[in-house]
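Comment thread on ticket #2218

A.B. wrote:
> Attaching the input chain for the structure job we discussed in standup.
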Amino acid sequence: MESEPKSSLVGRLTAALAEDERSNALDVQITVAGGKLFLIGTVPTEERRRAIEAVVLEAVRGQMPVVNTISVAELTEAPGADEPVG
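C.D. wrote:
> Ran it. Output below, let me know if you need it in another format.
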């Protein structure tokens, strides 16, 4: 069985991430290098990070290894956020 072209694979996975309600991700970069698929970006929660990886693993169907380098943003409270407005 022939391998799917890289551009086609990346396009298919990008669409899967955007359409799947678990991930609903448009801001994750997908790169293929050295026979591996890399997920790159930052998400707000660990749950979202795992969901994105799950969607990609299901879509890849063992075609190549997936390396999840997505980081989880550490959300900090803005200065003065606890002060009343007005």
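A.B. wrote:
> Thanks. Noting for the ticket: The chain has a mean pLDDT of 87.
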